[in-house]
Here is the input.
Amino acid sequence: MSVVVSRWATPLVTGLFVVSLVSGVAIFFGVGRAAFTGMHEWLSMVLVVPFVLHLQKNWRPFLAYFKRAPMRVALASSLAGALAFAAPSMIGGSTGAPPERQLIQLLPSRTVAQLAPLLGMAATDLEAALVRGGLKVTSPDEPIAQISADSSVTTSRVLAIALAAKPRPAGP
Here is the structure.
């Protein structure tokens, strides 16, 4: 095990850190959010294992850092930065998911007629598009969750079909 740790801990930490860095920067700037978010979250979790192995391999030199001020200052600054982001929600501010996620979570309970204007469509046009997409729709007053259940698909699939039906603006 010691040889495996010696050979692989640092290269894996480095490789996964670079992936986390690039995906985190992309997410921050809103570039490829759909492609990078899952990658960033999961591979950051995977990063924990080689990080722990790296710490195990370099435990004595790592402890030596705590004898000097830069490590204490860096850790205190990092903790202060983390608390600055977390404190507002911990002190009675926002609770639960971010507002945009809360809004998205409302969609399954909304009807075709309520969703259609958000897509710039008439309710009957959206209903027809959903039917063309292979879904069972009985009326524009039917909730998205019910269409999902009746059609044996996820609500995400229903919403994807609805978004695909959204009229495209005329190009130049």
Notes: Residues 103-165 form one domain. The chain has a mean pLDDT of 89. The chain has two domains: 2-86, 103-165.
